[in-house]
Amino acid sequence: MSSYPQTRLRRTRSTSWSRAMHREVLVTPADLIWPLFVTEGQGVEDPIASLPGVSRWSVDGIVARAKEAVALGVPCLALFPNTQPDRRSEDGREALNPDNLMCRAIRAIKDACGDDIGVLTDVALDPYTSHGQDGLIDAAGYVLNDATVEVLVGQSLNQAAAGADIIAPSDMMDGRIAAIRDALEGHSHHNVQIMSYAAKYASAFYGPFRDAVGSRGLLKGDKKTYQMDPGNAEEALREVEMDLAEGADSVMVKPGLPYLDIAIRVKQTFGVPVFAYQVSGEYAMIEAAVAAGAADRDAMVLETLVAFKRAGCSGVLTYHAAHAARLLGA
Ligand SMILES: NCC(=O)CCC(=O)O
Ligand SMILES: [Mg+2]
After folding, report:
1. I need a surface site. Which of 1, 143, 191, 279 has the fewest CB within 10 A?
2. Where do the catalytic residues lie (predicted)?
3. Does 40 show up as a binding residue in the annotation?
4. 29: Cα within 13 Å, side-chain hemisphere
C-alpha cells in the first residue's frame, strides 16, 4: 500500500552481511602510524602517567615495537625522543648530533626491519631546547623564523642520513618545507618524503605529549605566535597550499577529531594525501572515559578511526595504533 515508503534506508542495514557490503569506508592496519617515545638506557620501559598504556622505550624496546608493528601490518612509526635534561640547550643543538637518541633509534629500526616499515621523524626543536619552544628564541622569548629554519634543515639532514624515510616538520615556521626539500635534494635524498604538519593548531590537547618528551615543565608561555589559531579554517588552506608548492609529499592536520572539518576541506580542495594526528589529549580523553566506566574502548577507538577515513584522510597517527591493528586483524 502506498502509505509505506518505497525507499527504506533501513533495508540495507538490516543484516550484518549487508551492512558490511554497503560500508563506504574501512579502516585497515595500513591506515595507522604509530607514534613512539624513545628514552635512554637498555631494557627500559617507562610508563607515562598522563598517557595510560603508553610508555617511553629504550632503543632495544623501540626495535621490538617496530617488529610488532610489522607483524600487525602497521606501515609506519613516528619517533619522538625524551632528551635528557643535560643534553637540552637554549639552541637545541642536540638535534644536530648524528648520535642523538633519535638517530640511534632510526638506525636500530632500519638495521632490524629495513624497508618492512617506514620511519617518520619529527622535525622541531622542542625535544631539545631548554625552554621547550620549537625553535630559537630572542631575548623576549619570540621564536625566530629564519634562524630556526636553518637549524631545522640541519636536523632534517641529520635524520635522513640516519635512515629516516619521512621527514615530518612540526614546527610551523614559514618557508621550512622549501628549505628542507632543497637540502634533501642537494644531499641526494631524493626519495626521502616530507609529510608537513601543515595545519597544526595551538591546541590544549598536547599536554600529555609534553610530559612524554619532558618539555611540559620547561615550556614558558605558549606557541600561539607560530601554531594556528583554532578559529581559522581558510588560513589552513593557505598553509597547505604553500607547503605543497614548496615540495611537501603529504600534509597533516593536527589535532585530529576537533579538526575533521579541516581535514575534509584540505582533501576536497587539493586532492593530496592528508593525514591526521589524533593527539595525546584525544587519546587521554578516551582512556579517561574508559577508566570512568563511561565508554567501551575498542568500539570508541575504531569509531574515531573510521571518522578520519570518512573525512578523507589517508591515515592517522594514533597512540592506539597497535591496539587498533590487533582489533582489526582479529
Ligand atoms: N609534534 C608532535 C606533537 O606535538 C604531538 C602532540 C600530541 O600528541 O599531543
Ligand atoms: Mg606553514
Report:
1. 1
2. 200 (schiff-base intermediate with substrate), 254 (schiff-base intermediate with substrate)
3. no
4. 19
Ligand 2 centroid from CA 169, angstroms: 10
ipTM of the complex: 0.95
Residues 6+ apart with CB under 8 A from 142: 225
Q: What is the pLDDT of residue 1?
A: 55
- The helix (H) or strand (E) run that includes residue 177 is helix 176-186
For the chain, residues with pLDDT lower than 70 are 1-2, 330
Choosing from 67, 220, 223, 254, the catalytic residue is: 254
| Cell reading at 182 | 632543497
Grid cell listed for 80: 619522538
Q: Do the beta carbons of residue 168 and residue 121 sit within 8 Å?
A: yes
Q: By the 8 A CB rule, do 227 and 172 touch?
A: yes
Task: Please state, in angstroms and rounded to a whole number, the distance separating the CA atoms of residues 31 and 313.
Answer: 9
Question: Can you tell me which atom of ligand 1 is nearest the CA of 281?
Answer: 9
Cis, bond preceding 255 (omega within 30 deg of 0):
yes
Total-model pTM: 0.97
Distance 198 CA to ligand 2 centre (A): 6
Quick check: CB of 34 below 6 Å from ligand 1? no
Tell me, using a 6 A CB cutoff, whether residue 279 lines ligand 1.
yes
Point out the ligand 1 atom lying closest to the alpha carbon of residue 80: 2
Per-residue pLDDT, 4? 81
The distance in angstroms from the start CA to the end CA of the chain is 45
Q: What integer pLDDT is reported at residue 2 of this predicted model?
A: 64
CA distances from 162 to 95, 101, 174, 219, 319 (A): 12, 11, 25, 28, 24
Give the C-alpha separation, 272 to 265, whole Å: 11
Cβ atoms of 273 and 251 within 8 Å: the answer is yes
110 is catalytic: no
**What are the residue boundaries of the structural domains of the chain, listed by start?**
27-329
